[in-house]
Design goal:
By secondary structure, the protein is an alpha+beta fold. The protein is built from 6 helices and 5 strands. The protein has helices at residues 5-15, 19-33, 52-56, 74-85, 89-97, 109-122, and strands spanning 35-37, 43-45, 63-69, 101-107, 125-128. The strands form 2 sheets. A 3-stranded antiparallel sheet has the order 4-3-5, covered by helices on one side. Strands 1-2 form a two-stranded antiparallel sheet. A hairpin with a 5-residue loop joins strand 1 (35-37) and strand 2. Helix 4 (74-85) crosses helix 5 and helix 4 (74-85) packs antiparallel against helix 6 (109-122). It is elongated.
Length: 129
């Protein structure tokens, strides 16, 4: 694949970033230009509502279930997390206490909604991403 020399230099600079620098760059691009990394590492630009990019964007088919909080029923939330993840009780407790934490990745919309309902019933705060 042939690319312009200035693009090759830019790509090399990005590849040499530390994780902290890459995170800072990601935050800067998101805040300044509305550019966010999509699943799989591709770059996605946030379009204005009703813009052409929105109409052409494919519907999201996979979701991550992210625990954002456990409320005052931590034990109930830990039990549900243990059951849905298959982790040990201690690992589930650490996962819950480390919120925000991803409980399941790349699941169907139906499964994500089911997990969200189950976790919220136990007292958790959940986001689907």
């Amino acid at each position: 694949m042939t690319v312009a020399p200035e693009l090759a230099q830019l790509g090399d600079k990005i590849a040499d970033l530390t994780l902290k620098q890459a995170k800072e760059l990601s935050d800067y691009l998101k805040d300044k230009y509305g550019i966010e990394p999509a699943a799989g590492g591709a770059v996605m630009v946030a379009a204005a509502a009703g813009g052409p990019a929105e109409a052409a964007a494919p519907a999201q088919t996979e979701f991550d279930v992210v625990l954002t909080g456990f409320g005052d029923k931590k034990l109930d939330v830990v039990k549900v997390v243990k059951n849905v993840t298959g982790k040990t009780l201690m690992d589930a407790k650490k996962l819950v206490e480390g919120a925000p934490a991803t409980i399941k990745e790349a699941v169907s919309k139906e499964e994500a909604e089911k997990l969200k309902a189950e976790l919220e019933k136990a007292g958790a705060s959940i986001e689907l991403k």
